[in-house]
User: Which sequence fits this backbone?
């Protein structure tokens, strides 16, 4: 199989490119899906995560390499590990992006119901930046004080897509989907007391929404929501 990365043809076998004895990079993914391989750092050692990021950068110097769910040791080590390469570390999102960020296209409003939802929302923002999509973070506009959302409505309506991150009862995505024309993606978070059940209550609430056009991803999956809207913007914009 031949994958085209940044104008250069790179031969990639279906079995992937080995990195050490612990991983095989799927270099054909951008050509198949429009989205590059991203390193999920949770459960990996610091050395494994840094090695995978370094290999992604070596293969394609024109695209940033992204790692999500990074433990503290990776966030700390990445700052100096990559030499002259620009490194973007978000300790709230637990993301590391290595390489210059592409010029943003389109606009995505990323809303949170509360401040406690920020880690997931910031993961959305970091992923969008790595994929070359513009993001506008609108924090703490949950339904407990609906006036906060209404005050930001012109800003939200200006976006091409909207991602809404909410825990507890997960009500905010339904409200937003009833107020905007743009596609809305709901991200349930594992924020909440007892019966919130680690985000299950929020997920079920979003899935049961009576607001048409609301798409829902898995609990705490800010990365997945960002990829979804990036594909929409890329497709509509001809990317």
Assistant:
């Amino acid at each position: 199989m031949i994958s085209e990365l940044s104008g250069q043809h790179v031969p990639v076998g279906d079995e992937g490119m080995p990195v050490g004895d612990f991983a095989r990079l799927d270099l054909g993914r951008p050509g198949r899906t429009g989205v590059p391989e991203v390193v999920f750092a949770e459960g990996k050692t610091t050395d494994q995560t840094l090695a995978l990021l370094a290999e992604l950068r070596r293969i394609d110097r024109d695209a940033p390499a992204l790692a999500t769910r990074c433990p503290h040791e990776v966030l700390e080590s990445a700052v100096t590990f990559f030499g002259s390469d620009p490194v973007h570390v978000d300790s709230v999102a637990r993301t590391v992006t290595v390489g210059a960020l592409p010029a943003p296209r389109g606009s995505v409003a990323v809303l949170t119901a509360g401040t406690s939802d920020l880690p997931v929302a910031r993961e959305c923002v970091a992923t969008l930046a790595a994929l070359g999509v513009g993001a506008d973070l609108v924090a703490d506009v949950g339904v407990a004080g609906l006036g906060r959302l209404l005050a930001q409505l012109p800003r939200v309506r200006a976006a091409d897509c909207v991602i809404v991150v909410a825990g507890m009862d997960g009500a905010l995505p339904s409200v937003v989907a009833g107020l905007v024309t743009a596609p809305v993606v709901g991200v349930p978070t594992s924020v909440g007391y007892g019966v919130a059940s680690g985000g299950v209550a929020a997920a079920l609430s979003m899935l049961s929404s009576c607001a048409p056009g609301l798409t829902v991803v898995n609990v705490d999956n800010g990365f997945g929501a960002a990829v979804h809207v990036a594909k929409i913007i890329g497709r509509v914009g001809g990317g």
Summary: The first strand starts at residue 2 and ends at 5. The radius of gyration is 18 Å. The chain is about 35% helix and 25% strand.
